[in-house]
C-alpha cells in the first residue's frame, strides 16, 4: 500500500534500477501505510482547472508508447469529483493514434505542466471515450468554435507532484505582454518626447 502512483510506477525493473543506482532506500517510506495519492484534492483540482494544455501518453498493441499534446482554453480539462477527469477531443489531424491505442489498453498517463511556476503533476489513469458530453462537464466559453468529436474520461488511479529541479521556466504570451507593458509604455513616452 502507500503512495498509489509509486505503487503503479515502481515495477520490478524500476525497483532493481533504484537498488543499482542507490536510490531505493529513499522511497521505502512512501510504501507504508494506507493508500494515498489516488483521489484528487482541492490542490490538484485547482491545478488541473488552470491548465490550457497537457501531455497524454498511451501505448499501442505493438508496445510502442505515444505522447500527444492536448490543448484548449483554460479549464477544458476538468475534474469531476475526486477520481475522474474529463476533456473534449477537438478535431485535429485525424490520425487517431491515442484513440486507437486505448482500444488496445485503457492505461494512460497525463503530464500537466505549469512552466511559469515550475510545477508538474503526473497522473496515471484508465481512459474511456464517449460521443456524449458528461453531465457535469461544462464546455469552456470558446469551445463553441472548436469541433468536439468525443469526450475522454480518465479514471484516476494515482498521481504524483514532481520536483521542479529541471523545469525550464516559460511564460505564456499574455503574461509576457503584461510583464513588458510598462516598458513599452515608457518607450512610447520617450519616443513622443524625442519627436516633439
TrEMBL record:
Coiled coil location: none
InterPro entries: Pyridox_Oxase_N (IPR011576), Split_barrel_FMN-bd (IPR012349)
Domain Pyridoxamine 5'-phosphate oxidase N-terminal: residue ranges: 45-135
The name this protein goes by in its record: Pyridoxamine 5-phosphate oxidase
Source organism per UniProt: Caulobacter henricii
Amino acid at each position: 500500500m502507500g503512495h498509489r502512483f509509486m505503487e503503479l510506477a515502481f515495477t520490478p525493473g524500476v525497483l532493481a534500477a533504484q537498488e543499482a543506482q542507490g536510490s531505493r532506500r529513499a522511497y521505502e517510506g512512501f510504501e507504508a501505510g494506507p493508500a494515498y495519492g489516488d483521489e484528487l484534492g482541492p490542490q490538484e483540482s485547482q491545478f488541473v482547472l488552470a491548465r490550457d494544455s497537457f501531455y497524454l501518453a498511451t501505448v499501442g498493441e505493438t508496445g510502442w508508447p505515444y505522447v500527444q499534446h492536448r490543448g484548449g482554453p483554460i479549464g477544458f480539462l476538468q475534474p469531476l469529483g475526486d477520481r475522474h477527469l474529463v476533456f473534449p477531443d477537438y478535431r485535429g489531424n485525424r490520425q487517431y493514434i491515442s484513440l486507437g491505442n486505448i482500444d488496445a489498453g485503457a492505461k494512460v498517463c497525463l503530464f500537466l505542466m505549469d512552466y511559469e511556476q515550475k510545477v508538474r503533476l503526473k497522473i496515471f489513469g484508465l481512459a474511456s471515450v464517449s460521443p456524449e458530453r458528461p453531465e457535469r462537464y461544462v464546455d469552456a466559453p470558446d469551445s463553441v468554435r472548436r469541433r468536439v468529436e468525443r469526450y475522454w474520461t480518465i479514471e484516476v488511479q494515482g498521481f504524483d507532484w514532481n520536483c521542479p529541479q529541471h523545469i525550464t521556466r516559460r511564460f505564456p504570451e499574455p503574461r509576457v505582454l503584461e510583464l513588458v507593458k510598462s516598458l513599452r509604455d515608457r518607450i512610447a513616452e520617450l519616443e513622443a518626447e524625442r519627436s516633439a
